[in-house]
Amino acid sequence: MREQITVNIGERSYDVLIGPGVRSSLAEVIQGLGARRVAVVSARPAEWVPDTGVETLLLPARDGEPDKNLATVEALCAEFVRFGLTRNDAVVSCGGGTTTDVVGLAAALYHRGVPVVHLPTTLLAQVDASVGGKTAVNLPSGKNLVGAYWQPAAVLCDTDYLSTLPRREMLNGLGEIARCHFIGAGDLRGLGLAEQTAASVALKAGIVSADERDSGLRHILNYGHTLGHALEVAGDFALRHGEAVAIGTVFAGLLAGALERIGPERVTEHREVVEFYGLPTALPERVEAAELIRLMRRDKKALTGLAFVLDGPEGAELVQDVPEQVVSDVLERMPRQPLDRLIGSAGLHGTGAPVT
Length: 356
Description:
Shape: globular
Oligomer: single chain
Radius of gyration: 20 Å
Distance between the termini: 22 Å
Largest sheet: 7 strands, mixed
Strand content: 15-25%
Strand order of the largest sheet: 1-2-9-6-5-3-4
Helix content: 25-40%
């Protein structure tokens, strides 16, 4: 069964196709763009990349934070030049979230923008990175600090790719699905993985359609991300993105409770939802609260002080100038576990997810 979800942003609107075998639509998409050449940047084996129908340059990539930097973007653009790629041609990404981000930014910058099509091969990339047009790379001082908005021409979320994922990579994507519970998706725990994926993409598509460039509503997509990004950087990316966002989601509930925005039952619900998906809920034991606060001050939403997307009487919203002492107190009260226990004791509960 295939599902089509449209991101409605005027002349930049595009479709997200979800289902088994949808990558076979790539040649049709490329034909619709009128491209004569395509550069495919793939972190997966060559046989995973479908036929584009036109002259193709296949460039290898590596998923993971070490290559998510400006040097990789520059190297890709240099290959585009050697291939003779023009503004009328196209770029295709095939891989996980980091590959999607890096290739998206390279496409946004090359010739001031060439069409890009995403073939996300991980659950995280399918429910998050591939949809919405945010592209970014890291600096040594922080995550996703250099980027651009560049909407794809199409996104092909082939669920057949997911059958190859190891257990921890599935959990990585489930971290983004879990946080959707608190930003408008409702309770997805009783659904199968395909339905959870489609619901998460539909939620994001609706939010991006209403607020393409983060001027208001789109901030809620960063639920759990402020602490999550800080945990990734502080731990030198030992935690995967979805794992860190899961911990950040639990923290967001605790912080909203400390600020009396939500009651104790809703605070507990944050932990219960994250636990249901088999994700970590505690902080790594050797990460200091002061270091996390220092990193959170660099968050793009933090204009004058610490800022978080928090649950409240009207639902999730961006809250500016949260008192640092309250943040510190909440962090100090959170349980801590050794890193190997955080990432080794998690399991999948009731998701219907295929795990190999």
